[in-house]
SCPU domain-containing protein (Acinetobacter sichuanensis), 155 residues
Amino acid sequence: MKILLKSAAVTALLLGSGLTQAATTTSSIPMGIDVPKSCTFSNVSAGIILPEDGSEAQGAFSLLCNTGSFSTVFSMDSKAAHGQFQVTNPNGVSLPIEGAVSLFNNDYRLDHSIGYIGFIGQVLDYIVKVKLQAPTTATTPAGVYTDTFRVNVTY
């Protein structure tokens, strides 16, 4: 009987000490995501064909940014190289052009910059308007005349 009592007392002691030592512990793992600023172009015109009669031609592009403020800078390759807007053929013959970029029905020069503060996720539709300063004539050298319109977005 003594052994049984000792055994019961040891069992009670072990069980009791196990219950008093039982505890809970927690841990946490922080989570988050860093979404970088970005802007994307869409609906970009494949090209703009200038009419020989000097009438206006149009191209377009859309811009979507996930930041509320950014700036766009428009440029033409010919402006950087020659100081004026022009299309040039491979033989170096140039035809002067003029034009504007339209946003919200406001026209801006082709070598202008626009600062914008607006709504995140708002798609901005730009229209590029270009024309020859004078129609071509029978004395205008034949050939393909080109230039490149560029847009740089800083955000």
